[in-house]
Structure formats: structure tokens, C-alpha cells
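Human: My hope is that you can spare some time for a protein that puzzles me. I am handing you a single protein, as its sequence and its fold in C-alpha cell form. Could you go through the record with me and say what the backbone is doing? Take your time, and here it is.
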Amino acid sequence: MGFSPALLWKAPEINPVNRKARSIPILNPINMYGRVFNFAWFGFFVAFWSWYAFPPLLTVTIAKDLKLKPTDVQNSNIIALAATLLVRLVAGPSCDRFGPRYTFAACLLIGSIPTALAGAVTGVKGLLALRFFVGILGGSFVPCQVWSTGFFDKNVVGTANSLTGGWGNSGGGITYFLMPAIFDSLVSQQHLTPHVAWRVAFIVPFIIIVAVAVAMLILAPDTPTGKWSQRHAAAQQNLASHGITGVVVDVPGDLADKPGHSPGSESPTMDNEKKIGFMATDKRNGSLAGEADLGEQQMLDTARGEIVQKPTFKEALPVIFSLQTLVTCGCYFCSFGAELAINSILGNYYLKNFKSLGQTGSGRWAAMFGLLNIAFRPIGGLASDLVYKRTGVWGKKGLLHTLGLITGAFLIAIGVLDSHTKSTMMGLVAGMALFLEAGNGANFSLVPHVHPHANGIVSGCTGATGNFGGIIFAIIFRFVPPCTEDVQKIIQGAGATPCEMIQKPFNSLNDLDYWSHDHRYQSVALLDPTRPETPDRRSLSVLARVTTRGDSNPRSLPQRPSKDAGGSAAEQIRWDRAWHTATSFLTIPNELIVESEGEQRLDKRWFKECDTETKKALEYVLSDDSKGRKVRAGRKIEDLVRWYFEVEVLGHFMDHMLPVLTGILNEGSTPDELLEVGKHLYLAQMVYLHPMKSFMHQHVGAATSKRFEKDLHGLFIHTLPRDKIEDGLAHFYRHQASIVLDIDRQRYAPRYARIETLDPKLVAREMEKTCSWMEALQGVGLGDQQAQRIFAEVMSEMLGAHIEAVYARRWETPSKNEESLHAWIESDFAVFIEKVLAKTIDEPLQQETRLIRNDRAKIERWREMAINKLGLLRTEELFDVVVSWDDTIQGAIEDLKLYVKSPASRNYLTTSFSTALSKRLLQPGASTTEILQVYISIIRAFTILDSKGVLLDRVARPIRRYLRERDNTVTIVVGGLLADPDDDSNSDEVLVELAMEMANHSNSMDVDSRDGELDFDDMQWMPDPVDVGPEYKSSKHSDVIGSLISLFESKEAFIKEFQSILGERLLKKEYDFDREVRVLELLKLRFGESALQACEVMLRDILDSRRLDASIQKDQRFHGGAMGIVPALHARVLSHLFWPSLHSDSFAIPPAISKLQASYAKGFESIKHTRKLTWLHALGQVTVSLDLEDRTVTEEVQTWQASVIYAFQSDDDSSQPLIIRTVPELVQKLEMAEHLVLNALTFWIGKLVLKALPSPPHPARSFTVLETLADEAAAQEGTASAAIAAAAETVTSAAAPAVLSEQEMVREKMEVYSQYVVGMLTNGGAMPLQQIVMMLKLTVPGGFPFGNEELKGFLEGEVRGGRLGYEGGNYKIKH
């Protein structure tokens, strides 16, 4: 039946037997089927709304009102689910006995009572009790689904159940909107307090629930055929009305009266079910209007399969514990259990990750999860019905598998990411909701096919286990710490996936008949003609295991031939007797093979004697020469070997051996447990192989015997826990390799850790033990490919452990690690491997294995593996090597050169090292000097590692980029070039390594010549490596200085900074400029003489100044005078056009010094006739000697400090009272900037020459000379030390650089243009920044050289200084 929109309101087509609808009239509430459908979903909707009415208000409002702890909230969520679990278990059988309508209404009415009593709660105990009884409403899901199943036929029952369940489940989402909205309305509009409002809010769902329950009882029927008690007779009557006779069920009936067989008919299997069509095949007495046409047998089968029976407890148990019921329960445990648990905590989870949402916002977002049931759960049911039409029940099961797996993946993703981004989190939750809720719909699309005669019990158990899952997951959320909420979801997702997958082996039972056990019984009986028609539990369990193996199927098992096979009944009887004799002989005792029995007792207890009759029977059944097999040539006959393996061996192993072996492995994965398992398997293998090797081998041949043994080993491997076996093997290999190869015994063999040197005899015994164990494990199938793979992994691990233990941080040069490692590989490692592998390889390959020692290619591969691991170790240590670099640790680089021979290894090295640099070096906490020191070491190390510079080019890029962003990089580089490496007074900030490098490479070529691509005269030229990057540039010479200089975008920036620092050093130093001369000459070789012309002039000025000063001193005779004491004046004459900008602060100097300057200038003009001197007072230095009453103070000070102290002496030699000076007075008298005055005063106070006077009685900021240290104030405890410390700090700050910085030069130039700005603002009024810039560009001769940002910064400084004002975006003169 195709879909048509008219089906949504049109009266549906009816199944003539059970009167179920074959479409869903959703929009037709007048029609009986439409009315029942809408009552079902809406009744469950209001029940779910009230059931989950607490969580939206519980986290904040109710918790605050009742003073609840977070654990109380979580406990209440668990309690609510516990009650529903119990109710659903009861509701299922109640539906079968009383009908789903009455059960539905009873759940609603009983559950409404505690809903109305919510306002009576006053504490946590009351809340727990109330939520327990409110949980009764959750049990309404079971009658909802049973009622829907009873009204809609199999072609649409999945869609109907998913729609009623999904739309009903959406009540759990709507409640997150409705309850906060009702609460907010009562608080804001009705002006109720929160304490009262949340209690009143629960009256609303109570009223609606009661109204729906009463309407359901009045307006809706029990079944499509009428009353529930008359359902059996109605089905019989429907059959009779179509002219069909047959027994459907005995009234009143019970579960023991399952549908039986009519003569000549079979029960419909699920494989046949999908073939049943509703085509008109045989019309009996006509068809009623709207009925579908069914065949006679189809009608009878439908009636027998779907009449619900009244259950008793004894009869319900087989249904509850059947595999089919357990499968649906397990799936619903994961899917619906996850939904319930997530519903309970989702609002709180959103509130934690997105605090801005608040209680209402997080509740609304959490509501989306439940609301999605409106669409997503029906999608599962609809898809299930569509698949069912084409593939039958198997399609529904396959869909359920797929949805479960995808749901688990989404839950794991949510837990791992724990996203704090709304779009990511909501998208993941929506995706998870799609597959989770669709899985719920698909599950209850499958439930109607499971025991249709007990649909209520199956629905109740399935629904209850869903609630049980919710409880389990809620308990996980309750007791797992909050810091691992992502782990909770991972557990939940990981739980959902395997529980869906566990369906697969159970579903294999349906290869014969998913529902009818009789056919399965008959098929099992065909395996052994001597068995009764109804097999015992043993044969059923054997069949179940056979069908789970993947390569076996009951249908493909050899069937008993027909009685005329071979053309003789006598021959058939003989065959049957021989088969019976052989199978009786091969039957394995139904008990455990105990390890303590040993091989000797196996003969007496497990190895049967084969008499003559049994031997003849085996020969008759097995031998190709026997008459029995000859007459059956070309026909499909019994395979005794296969029967023995799949029935006896497999059954005995699964029933008796596997539980014991699994228990041993679960106790631990140590070699002891593995050995114990091996012993059990060895004894079991002897028992299983005894008949084959002793009696059957001669008849079936060597190939069959070998295949039997191989299948037995496969049984052992694939049934034992793979992870436990692998862990045990790995543990054993590590332990033995650690002892034999002496590798990290502290970690792998603690018992031998204290022995410094192992006895060779002990090592030999352990080697023999290893080989014997491997031979034993190989004998039982545990030493094959699986063991070889584990062995390879462990030996790779042990090789790495050996290298780490022996060669870690061994960086000595020259490196001998390669030789020692190769020797160890050949003498120890390879020998151990070959001996072990010889025990795990089949005998035909033994000869090849013996050649391993002589196979140089294999040893070379192990050597390569060792070198790679050594290279990985050195790659991890490379950063430490570089940081600690000196010539003695080049061995680490030599080891790396063996490793970086492939593009992959080179790429790994550079990537790992770059990552280490970013994490450990290129951080704000690292100084520029430290980074440059490491960079120098990197250049040295990587030049040795790769002479072509490809690797250095890769790793240096992030460092170079980072250094360019540091403001002081140029200063430190240039300072390092000019530093004296022999000067012990160098601070840590001085890059002495660069000075040493400069001295070692005095003959380096010009830097620009390094960029040449080709040198045709170079006979050592080699092509670039294949892994060079597109930006790589070949370099024949790669040195530290060249790399550092190339950091800067142009050499002009470097030279400019060099000029500034050189000028500073030339002005500060008195003698010995050899270092500066040498550096200058070396840089001229790199950059050319023209680039450094200014620096050369500066140096020549200083050198010439010495000669000029000596000449002037001689001519002017500065060393004599009237008093015989004349200050010595020495000057340095600078060519200002070639020097960088210098500080030019002016102030008044003592008259004696002024006279000397005039005399000095006169002498200079006599020598240099065309030049004149301009004195820069701020750059001078003065040696001052002060004669005080009790001491003499001699200091070398700055010129402004000398001028200030000179101002405190009298104008003549006569003694005067104490001279007192104030700061304003000094500023005015000396015409000096105030900050220089304060600097000088602080300096002399620190030297205990001046002291500050108290105010009053003295004027503010008054100072005088401290003639004697006996002065009371100066003699106070601590004054001297504090003053000296202050003086030292002042000296440091006073030593301002002679050369102006770039910012100071900009400021100095900007001061010139400030007069233009003041004039414009005075004449034109307030102006914005843009207008000021435009006016300056028009009025300043030559144009205004600065941009908007520079001018803005200057004007803001003027505003802060109080010289300008700023208002409304305009600058103005401040009056």
C-alpha cells in the first residue's frame, strides 16, 4: 500500500481477521482508529509532562526552597525512574489480563494523585517519596504501546508505535517550556512568592491528566473487535465469516495455548512472514468493505499468531527470559535509558557549560532534546516499516543495529569534546537525539513481532528495562565525580554500542524460525537420527553456538537422507545403526576436564576403547571405500567429522571449558594465568583429538585431520577473550626479554631487579623456558599469527627500552653508539628473536627459520629499526642538546645524521623540534638574550647535521619570525658584537657568544655574496635535497653572524642601530678602542666601506680628538694659573653630520669651567681655522673633590650633578653661614630642567653630602650641605646605608645614554612643530585631529613628515601635561 495524503483522514483499510488498521488516520478523531491513536499519544504526552515536571524547576527554584544538595537532586531523579520500572513490569501483564485501555487509565488516575500533592512537600524526604509515586505515570508507556499495537497491523505498527511513543515522549521536552512559563506567570502576574508558585504550578498537569483519563474510558474502545474479554471469539467469528475453519485458541485460554498447527499446515516463520502479501488470492463469502484480501492459510496463521493470552506467572517466565525478549530489552535499556538519564541532567549540564542561559534558558534548550521525539522517534518507526516491506524482520533488526552504533559514537563525541560553544554542543546533541530516539521507535517496531500472543508482557519488560537503564545511567551521573562528566557520557556511549551489537548472536537463532520453536527442534533432531523429536537443552545450546560461528548455519548442515537413498531400506537401516554407534562412541562426557588429572589419568577416564563393532561403524560412515558411502555417491550425506566438531567438541568446550578458562584469565593477565590456560587447553586438545588421531585418521586422511586440528585451534583463539590472551602474551614476552636481553629489569622483571649482573646459567634457563613455553602455546593454537604479532610489538618496545636505558643523554663525541648498537643487535637481539620465532612457525618453514642468523638482510632491517629508534630518542632530546651545546656533545648530532636520511624522518625531526621550541622557548618569559643564545646553538648544531641548511631553514623560521617581533633584538645583537668576551663583568644580558663568533670568523666573506645560487668553481657542489621547501635558498656559507644579521629586513636597520651603540660606547670609554676598530673592520668586510662610512668617521673623530686635545692643552697651558690650581679640561670634538642625534640639554656651568671652555675653543680655532665648537654640557663627566669639615669626598659625576653641588658653595672664599638652596631657586639659577636638579640632589643626598631640611621652619624642598656626619639626623640608625643605596640607584638612572633613542628624536622633532599647533589653536580655535594634520601639511615648509598616529600620541601627551585640552573630539588651548 503506497502512501497518500488522504490516508491521514480517510477511514483505513482493515485486516479481515484481527480488524487492525493498515493505515493511520491521524487527522480523523471521529474514526475509531484515529481516536485511539490520538488518545494513546496524548495520554502518554500528559503523563510524561507530569512525570518530568520537576527537573525544570528542581535545579534552582525547588532546590533553593527546600535547601537541597546536588546529591539530593540526583537521588530524586533516580527514585523517579525506580518507581516507573516497577510499574512497567506490572503494567505489561495487566495489559494482557485486563486490556491496555483500563491499564492506561489506571496509571494516569493513580499517578495524578501525587502530582496534585506536590505542594505538600517540605523537605528532601517528602520530595523523594513524592517523586517515587509520580513515577507511576511513566508506566503508562506500556499500555500506550500495547494499545497502539492492538489497533494497527504489522505493515504500519512500527510507525504507529513510534508516533505514539515519540509524540508522547515530547512531553518531557514540553515540560521544560511549560513548567517554567507557568511558574514565571504565577510569580510575575499573580504575584505569588516562589515558595508558593512552584507548588501551585503542579495543579495544572493534575487537571489535564484526570480529564484525559476520564475521556479515554468514555470515548475509546478496548480492541478493534470490541471488548477485551471477547477478543478470542471475535477472531474465530471473523474467520468463520470468511468461510475458514480452524482452531485459533481455546477460550478462555492461557500462554500454554500458543498457536498450534492445523493438519497439513505450518506456522508462519519470519522468513515466510515477509512473503505474506495482502493480495486477493481466495475470496470466501466475499469481502467486507474496506477489508484487505488474504488467503485462507494467511488468515488462519494471522489469527493464531496475534491473539493475546491471559498470563499466569509460570507461563510468563518463558516469555520474559526468552532470547528474543531479552534482545529487545537490552537494546531499550541502552537507548531509552540513555534518553531518560540525559533528560534528567541536560538542563543542569547546559547551565554548567553556558551560565549565561540561566534556569529558564537552559531549561528551554534542554527541552529541545525531548521535543525532538515528535519527529525523530517516528522516523525510526517509519524507516523500520519501510525496511520491513522489502526485507522482513531482518531489516528491522539491521536498522536497530545501525542506529545503536551511531548513537554510541555521538555520545562518546559529546563526552570527549565537552564543548563550550553553543553551536557545536547543540548540533552534537541534536545529531545524537536523531539516532537515539529513532532507535527507540525502531525497537518498538520490532516488539510486536516478538511473542505476539504475549505482547503486553514483552512490551512491559522492554519498557521496564528502558527505565532500568535510566536508573543505571542516573546512578553513574550521581556517583561519578563532576570533573569526569565527559567520562560519564563516554561510558554511556560505550555501553550503548556493545549492547546493540549483542543482538547479533542472539538474532542468529532466527535463521530457522524466529518465533516457532517446533521447526528448530525438528532441524536439531535431524542431526542425529537416534535423538528424540524434542531435543533437550544441550542440543539447543549447541545449535545456538553453531549458528553464531558465522561460517555455519543449521540449514547448511548435512541432512539425513530420505529413506530411499541408496535404493534400499535395509541399507538405510544399516547406515542409521552405524551412525548411531559412531556418534555414541564419539560423545564426550558432560563434565569438566580437570587439570589435576594429568595425561596418565586421561587414558582411563576420557580415552574410550574402540571395539570391533565401533571400528566397523566408523569405517562404514567415514571411509570412501565403504558401501554406505559408495551408494550415496553424489548425494548430500552426513559428515561425521563435522558433526563431532560442531556438536560434541564445540558443545563441550563452550559448556565446560570456556567458563573456567575465562575465569582464569579474568583473574589476571600475567604469565602464570596464561600458563594455566595453556595446560587446560593442552588436556582438552588431547581429549578432543584422541578419536581423530586414534580411530578416524585412517579413514578421513591427513588433510581432514589437519583441518580438524586447525579448526580446533581456531575455536580456542576465537572464543577466549582476545584482549586477555594478548595481554598475557605481551606480559610474558616482556618479562622473558627483559631477563634474557638485560633490559630494564626494574620495570619488566622486578624480581630480578636487585641483581646487578645476571648469572649466564640463569639467562640460559630463561631462554630455554621461553622457547618451551612458545612451543607449548603453539601446540594449542595460541602461538600462531596472533602470538607472532604480539611478539613483534613487544620486541619493538623492548628495543626502544634498551636504547633509552643505554643511550639516553649519552652525547659524547665522537659517537660510538652505532657500532655498539649494531653489535648488540647481532649478538643478542637477533639470536633471541630467531630462537623464539623458530617455535612459532610451522615445521615446513623451520629450515628457512634456521637461516635467519645468516640472513644479513634481516639483520640489516633490525639495525635500521634500531637506528630509527635511536633517532627518535635523539629527536626528543634535541632541544636539551641545543640548550646545553658545546663541542663535547656533538655525538648526539652524529647519531641524528644516521636517522635523517629519508624525507619522512627529516620532516618528523623538524616538526618535533619546532613544537618543542614553541612550547619551551618562544614564550614571553624567555629573554631575548636567551632566545638568541639558543638560536646560535641551533645554527651550530644543524650546520653539522645538514650542511646544505635545509633542516636549519625549516626550524629557524619560527625563531627568526619571533625575534623580529622583539624590540630589543637589534640592540642585543649589536651589543654582543661589541662586547669583550674576556671581560668578566659582562652581565647575563650581553650576548658574549656573538663576540666570540666574531673573533673566530674574522676572514668571513661579504654577507651579500652568500646569496649566490651557483659557483662554477666549486668542485664540491652537490644538488639540493629533494625535500627542500619553495622558499629555501641555497647557501654555501652559513655562519652565526650572517644568520643573525639577516634577521633584519635590510642591513640599513642593523647599521643604524650599530651606529647608535657605537657612538654610546665611544663617548663613554676613555681609552682602548681596539675592540671597536676590529668590529668595524670586520663589518666593513661584510657590508662594504660605504655602508659604514659614518661609523668610520665617528671612530676617527675620537682618535683625532686625542691628538687635538693634546695639542690644545700644550698650546693653552691649562695646567697653570695664578693660584696654581686650574681644573683640567679635556674635550672630544665630534663631526655632528656623521654622528647620531645626541642629548643637548643646556644649563649654567661654573664660571671657572666656562673660562676654560672659552680658552679651549680659542685654541681649537687656532688649529681649525674654519670651524667652531658647540659645547654639549649634558654629555660631559666631572671629577669633583669636596673638602668638608670632617672628610673629603671625591666622585666622578655628570656635569649637571657637578653644577648643582657647585651652587652650594659661597661666591667668595670668606666663610658664610650655612647655605640653603631650594629646588625652584636651583632651577632658576642654573637654568636647568627640574628633573636634572632633582636627580643631582638625590645623588648628593645618597653620598651624604647634602641633606634635606624640614619644612617648616625652612621653605619646602630646601637642602643644605652636611658638613659633619655627627649631625643628629644623619647619624640616625640606618640613614647611611639607606642613603648609599639611594645613591647607587640614582647613579644607575642618571647614566642616561648620550645618543637619543628613536622615540626621543621623534619627540624632539615634534617639539619644533608644536609651536605651529599652538599658533593654529590660538588663532583658529578648537580643531579635530584631521584638520590639524591638514593645516600642518599646508603651512610647514617642506611638508609635515609625521602621520596621524604620531601626532595623536604627541597631542595626548600635551593634554596629560596640562598644556592642551581635549573636548568633544577637538583639541584646544587650555587657559
Remarks:
- Residues 671-719 form the longest helix (49 residues).
- The CA atoms of residues 814 and 1132 lie 54 Å apart.
- The chain has a mean pLDDT of 75.
- The radius of gyration is 49 Å.
